[in-house]
Amino acid sequence: MGDTDKGGWGYVVVAGSHLVQILLMGTAGSLSIVFSEWAYDFNTSIGSASMVLGIVPIIAGLFSPVAAALIGRFGCRPIAFIGGTIAVSAIILSSYVQSLEHLYYSFVMLSIGISMSYAPSILILGEYFKKRIVLANAISFVGIATGQLIIPPFLSFLFSTYGWRGGFFILGAVSMHLLVSAAIFRPNRRRYKNREHVSKGNQNLADDGSQHLADDSSNFGDTKPSICAKLSKAFGIPALCINPHFVLTILTIFILSMALFGANTFLIPRSENAGIQKDKSALLMSCFGIGGMAGRIGYGILIDRRYLTMASSFMMAIVMSSIEIFLIPILDNYAFLVCLSLLFGISSGIISSLCMVMPREVVGSTPDLVTPAIGLSMLATTGGQSIGVLLSAIIYNTTGRYSTVYYVLGGLATLSALTFFPTYVTLRRREMEEAQYEKGDDT
After folding, report:
1. I need a surface site. Which of 291, 330, 368, 420 has the fewest CB within 10 A?
2. How far apart are CA 357 and CA 363, in angstroms?
3. Which ranges of 355-401 does DSSP label H, i.e. alpha helix?
4. Listed range (43-52, 112-121, 285-294, 322-331) with the worst mean pLDDT
5. Which three-class secondary structure state does DSSP give residue 430?
6. What is the mean predicted confidence (pLDDT) over 169-187?
7. How far, in Å, CA of 436 to CA of 430, rounded?
């Protein structure tokens, strides 16, 4: 699988990245089962207890550009090791808290650890894979679906046997495997040897672009750099600010994350509102997880075999998800909802994986641009998820109808498709030119 490393250590790196997704994303998505115990122990409402978990994507997303900048400076392995240490410490400390406020502090710490562990697990794949980066990402992101299947029953057993405090202590011990994954993320020396040559080639282009911008700005005299420019330079993303297709891609990811996460969050309440039994409604999430696993693996294989392209897969998945979100409030039959949950899981699985790949595809292989691009993509994803859930809750509390929620979310998914369309056309044109070039080389 490894293009640069000829498969050897690349396989181990993918396994380590897969393990990070299981431990981090699987755990973060399963802690809702402890809300009632937190509410009882700390004498508060379930809503207040649930906000503890709600801050995780917000803090992790806001810290993502910082984590990306640190990775660009120090590399993936040391940042992943520090992030894993912070996450493990936060989980263990959570078992000793005596108030809900202290739990908030420990989960802020956990969010920072998640951000510093998650980003290296994605970026390290680019060190070992180029042509098969999509398949490598797909295998890594299958860990999210794996975690959603195995972590909830594991946590349920721990909490029922040892209480939530004892369960968190044991979970912290299990999470120490994050440090094992961090040790696996060694830099690819052969890839680094080629970086200087690649950077010099891209520097010529950057110099030309800088000269062009300088010529354009000379008519306006000397101007002080804006705050945005200073922050961009600090995080190593000056060229990203002037790349319209990258901006459109990030905006697409943000809008799409709002729609998908909001639709997924309210899937069970909506089915129960339609008269479906609670246990059957819960099975819809299992169907969604199975579909997500199939989508992540399936699209990776199809792209690797060149039956599909990244741009086409991303656009197709966005259109599919838009249609599926619009259908959720219309269908009340349980069998139809099961099929729809499977399809929604497939499209969501494809999208969630490609959200980490499309920025890399847009900005190219320039090392100084890939790392901050992934960091901004993570920020857009987590920010969109947080706002999507909040927006959905406000709409439902205002209208009292799940159909209105899903129609608005379907509209957002459609808007994301329109936002991505100019970039899709550009990428498709480039993919066709590359295919013609390779065909010419073969002849």
Report:
1. 330
2. 10
3. 358-363, 367-399
4. 43-52
5. helix
6. 92
7. 10
